[in-house]
Amino acid sequence: MKAFAFFVRVSAVAACAAVSACASDPATTQSAVEPIRAPQLPGKQANEPARHPAMTPQAISADAANFRQCISSLGAQATQRGIPQAVYNRETHDLDPDMKILELMDRQPEFAKAVWDYIDQLVAERRITQGRELFAQNRAIFQRIERTYGIDPYVVAAIWGIESNFGANRGDRDVIRSTGTLACIGRRQEFFRAEFLAAVEIVARGDIQRERFKGSWAGAFGQTQFMPTTFKRLAVDFNGDGRRDLVDTVPDALASTANNLSKNGWQRGISWGYEVKLPRNFNYAQASRNVKKSAQEWTSLGVRRVRNEALPNVHGYILAPAGARGPAFLMTRNFEVILRYNPADAYALAIGHLADRIRGGGPFEGDWPRGEQVLSRAERVELQERLSALGLYNGAIDGKLDEQTRAALAAYQRRNGFTPDSFATASVLERMRQER
Ligand SMILES: [Ca+2]
User: Fold this and answer.
1) Cα(85) to centroid of ligand 1, in Å?
2) How far apart (Å, rounded) are the C-alpha atoms in residues 407 and 410?
3) For residue 336, what is the enclosing H or E element?
4) pLDDT digits over 350-390, tens only?
5) How far, in Å, from the CA of 325 to the mean position of ligand 1?
6) Structural element, H or E, at residue 330
7) Around 167, how many Cα atoms within 13 Å sit in the side-chain half-sphere?
8) Residue 330: beta bridge partners?
């Protein structure tokens, strides 16, 4: 549903533009700090080359010159959706493109953000405190949501807190204008046409008034930053007034978020994940979303839950977002449900952790390797080039820390006395630079 921003963004329901695998690919996240939300743009990768052919100045100018015609040509599709022509004209006749959005769309963070900085920012003390207060104030609603949808209500509260700072930062761009801009200009036009038409539908149906219909530059809006098409599929009227108002009606927004998690396969009664300690000889190739085992199997490999607590009988994978020197987690299917909100490990980890903190839990047991620097995109490219020159890697030189790159890095680490955990840091790159 949504997106979020790693470097800056966040959105649960929107699209995460920013977010990606945080530690390995911190590209995308934003957070409530600056509601950018690149939400769920299914295609946007942090490492995507900046100059897509549809994103050159010439292409953008040509699309912009054609903007009015493009918007009116979409009127026929609006009619097919049951939007009266007069309503479509009323909502779009004076639309002009918001060109600032095109800049935001391909903005590349200069520096990568470490997962611990990301978590610190999103799970800040003041947000925890405010979350506890708001949870108490809205207890009856949260209880009813839990009964209705079977979702951990603290996770819903955490999404609310991170997506919009509990409703305070919902974004201030007109959603129809933003999605209309992206529907007619730039490299995601097809994706945003559906968002734009869904946005017009929302206003046409009277769920949200146009003047209240503001959101992030990518069109994520409301208390939990839904994209318009997500709204269409999953928004609910929880206070029974006949409107699905995710902007000004907190129960509607929270219940819609719970409905979203539920429809994405949330499993009642288990956590998003459990912090664990890995044995000294742990094979970090097994810390992968592709390697799922039962708690019993992980236990037999020496994995233990922290604080000597018992591991519930769950099935999942190990995430060690900062390698051998950071905390590790056994992630359940519910973590993957949160990832569908915004596909960045750091984002989903922040949601899960904030939920636990609002519930009354403490910080992680494991420490982060805060002295380490994570690699920028340019440095990740250099890392691949150097691994390639050493004969350890023959994949794409694209700055993406995928499985093949991680395996090559582990081979290098093993050969050079580092723990082979595939955590790409400045110190391992520095070591490579000294090779001749
Ligand atoms: Ca309502």
Assistant:
1) 26
2) 5
3) helix 333-341
4) 999 999 999 999 999 999 999 999 999 999 999 999 999 99
5) 47
6) strand 328-331
7) 15
8) 274, 318
